[in-house]
Amino acid sequence: MSARPTGAWEPFTPRGVAAFARARLRRLWLVQFIVASPAAAVAVWIVYNGCFPVVTAAIQKLPATGEIRSGRLEWRGHSPQLLAEGRLLALDVDLDHSRQIGSPADVQIEFGRETVRVFSLFGYLDWHYPGNYVIFFNRTELEPRWGAWAAELPLMAGVAAVLGLLLSWSLLATLYFLPAWMLGFFTNRDLNFRQSWRLAGAALMPGALWMTAAILFYGIGFLNLVTFGFTFGAHFLIGWIYLFVSPLFVPRAPVTASQGNPFRQPKRRE
């Protein structure tokens, strides 16, 4: 049995991705964790800086009383009214969804009488308020609650993002390992199912690094929402390229005597 390679540390090249096929599973998980951590940190930083101040400002503009009860918003302020706005997020109240408030923010959340409407580049979507719950919608109740949770939410969101990435990569590797194994089979590469699964998991990391950079550039305003959408689609394409190229850098399967040319005629003895 050949020893496992010790060079499975970098998932930036097809050869580096191929090395994970023979690495231990905990090595793959460790490198995935290293890649997922900055991706989650950048995403949380964008939300914290781009959305949290908007939510804070919106809560401060709410009236002293108000709630969502029996699926309806009880609003005692002026409507329509813009509560707060930033480059990424805008919050407003428009009981009749009259569309008098049009925000240039990438996402606009509008609270109506019976539904909350979310506007984005792709149009809008309505969600009905839950009918069996009472939700506070006033400054008196929300301001202290938001102040208590605002410092803890980024950490909780970061942990959830890392775990979500690791879980999604495991699920995608389960979908992708069969094409990697088939390519290895037809190119005579030394790949079994478990090795193909590890290779597929490593092939997802270059796309994740690309996506991390895209989120960062979007957060600082270098990319707009349309360009960000294209880069989001491109990160899947990057993963597929590595998935189909990396098996070609796996060593070839050893050829045994029984695997010779089946059409070769044996030599006749004189």
What is the fold's blueprint, element by element?
Blueprint (H helix, E strand, L loop, with lengths): L13 H6 L5 H26 L1 H9 L6 E3 L2 E3 L6 E5 L3 E5 L13 E5 L3 E6 L2 E6 L6 E2 L2 H11 L3 H34 L6 H11 L1 H15 L5 H21 L25
Parallel strand pairs: 4-5
Antiparallel strand pairs: 1-2, 1-8, 3-4, 5-6, 6-7
Helix pairs in contact: 2-5, 2-7, 5-6, 7-8
If you had to describe this structure to a student in words, what would you say it looks like?
By secondary structure, the protein is of the alpha+beta class. The chain has helices spanning 14-19, 25-50, 52-60, 139-149, 153-186, 193-203, 205-219, 225-245, and strands at 67-69, 72-74, 81-85, 89-93, 107-111, 115-120, 123-128, 135-136. A hairpin with a 2-residue loop joins strand 1 and strand 2. Helix 2 crosses helix 5, helix 2 (25-50) runs parallel beside helix 7 and helix 7 packs antiparallel against helix 8 (225-245). The longest helix is centred in the middle third of the chain and has 34 residues, at 153-186.
Relevant terms:
270 residues; alpha+beta; five-stranded mixed beta sheet; three-stranded antiparallel beta sheet; 8 strands; 13% strand; disordered N terminus
